[in-house]
Design brief:
mainly alpha
Amino acid sequence: MASAYELMGQAGVGGTSIAEIADHADLGFGRPDLLSDRLQKGFYKFGVRDLKEGIREGQYTLDEEKVDAAWRLQMWMLVGGVKKLFRSDDVEEGEVILIEPIMRAMGVPADHAREVARLPVPELPPAQLNFMDFRDAKLGGAPTAKNAR
């Protein structure tokens, strides 16, 4: 987060990319391991439940004793996809490649997941976030007039 605060403070939110933040923070091999581990543990209860439900409903052809391994592989697929997306020149196609299997892993039928993953993203208003507020709160201080918007 420190890298994000520093780069966004210099170039602004719109002038900073996730790839630049990752490069600045020097996110090496250990970070994907940590992220995968946290995802596997943090969402385990829900992911395994959904996988088992998908097996019972015929969505997946997987033996229930292999659910844990499938869950771990899905989390690595997610981490790898996100890392690749951050480094990709073709963000739109990268999003489709990442979103479709995630939806399928959540039990969405393949044809529907493919269709939804390719829909255009709706226009959203700009986020009203001041990242300096997050930094100040993390450091124990309150936002100041200088960094408040």
